[in-house]
Specification:
This protein is α+β, with helices and mostly antiparallel strands. The chain is built from seven helices and eleven strands. The strands form two sheets. Strands 1-2-9-6-11-5-3-4 form an eight-stranded mixed beta sheet. Strand 1, helix 1 and strand 2 form a beta-alpha-beta unit. Helix 3 packs parallel to helix 7. It is globular.
């Protein structure tokens, strides 16, 4: 199964070759990972002290902030150290944003930033519930944040000095959805309204959000699906950067420590081909409009 679209680039801002630009959006939208093995995010010498889980607060597994605010969550640091950690994450956001806008210029006016995350904790061996276990194959869907068809596009970088980040990548979204939808109950408008009234969700879940969350849960909860579905294991080396639509690429992070992750949201109207979106795929499979 061909899942990687390698790019031989070594800078974050471009300009990039017409060939790389021409294939990048198509690769992302058809469920591939843009894979840039020689594009490290450079952690500055004074920042290397942050390559430790000691910077985390309590049970947090990552440090995060939204680029449109200066709020930093998940760290115990205060004062000058907190400011330096924030500056490192902001720099990653700027790098990731520049990369996507140069590789996929058609997305530029549509991309909206989500969380910027630094993940200093080891993935393997972490105790959690099956629903929150990211070592299980899943597509991204949020219980409290309805997406209403928005795409979830993420850029990742492995900044571990020595160890690879181990991922599993599963079957194409349309194959997975066709397999799992028969076991999913239809959405309940009453439940959606109640969850919104109670403040459990930030607004009402659409039928699209219902199906996406159920696909996420069915994938994770089924041991047979986890072991038997077609999948590929990747060892992503130190210094590599990669990107994919995590709402369509079923993925599992198996092991690794010290990585960055930048989330972007994109309306399907900003895609090169909206018919490739999970929203349009699900609407074809269920035979009705879902948003």
């Amino acid at each position: 199964m061909e899942i990687l679209e390698p790019l031989d680039i070594t800078n974050w801002q471009g300009p990039f070759s017409p060939e790389d630009v021409a294939k990048s959006a198509d690769a992302l939208e058809t469920g591939k990972l843009l894979y840039v093995p020689n594009l490290p995010f450079l952690v500055l010498e004074p920042e290397r002290r942050f390559l430790s889980p000691d910077c985390l607060e309590g049970k947090s597994k990552n440090v995060s902030f939204r680029p449109d605010s200066r709020g930093l969550k998940g760290t115990r640091y205060q004062g000058e150290e907190r400011g330096e950690l924030l500056a490192m994450l902001r720099r990653y956001y700027e790098h990731a944003s520049g990369l996507l806008k140069a590789l996929c210029p058609g997305y530029s006016s549509y991309l909206k930033p989500g969380f910027t995350s630094f993940r200093p904790a080891e993935i393997a061996g972490r105790s959690t519930s099956w629903r929150h276990d990211d070592t299980r194959l899943h597509v991204d869907a949020f219980p409290s944040r309805p997406m209403r068809g928005l795409r979830i596009l993420r850029v990742f970088s492995n900044v571990n000095p020595q160890m690879p980040r181990i991922w599993r990548v599963g079957e194409k979204f349309e194959l997975a959805a066709a397999k799992l939808l028969p076991g999913i109950a239809p959405p309940s408008p009453v439940k959606s309204q109640v969850l919104s009234w109670l403040g459990i969700t930030k607004g009402r879940r659409t039928p699209y959000d219902h199906f996406m969350l159920e696909i996420h849960d069915h994938m994770k909860a089924d041991p047979a699906y986890q072991s038997e579905t077609e999948q590929t294991q990747l060892a992503i080396p130190p210094g590599a950067t990669w990107a994919c639509y995590t709402d369509a690429v079923s993925h599992a992070a198996m092991s690794g420590q010290f990585a960055f992750e930048q989330t972007f949201y994109l309306p399907i109207s900003g895609m090169k081909n909206p018919d490739r979106s999970p929203l349009r795929v699900l609407e074809r499979l269920v035979g009705r409009q879902l948003v």
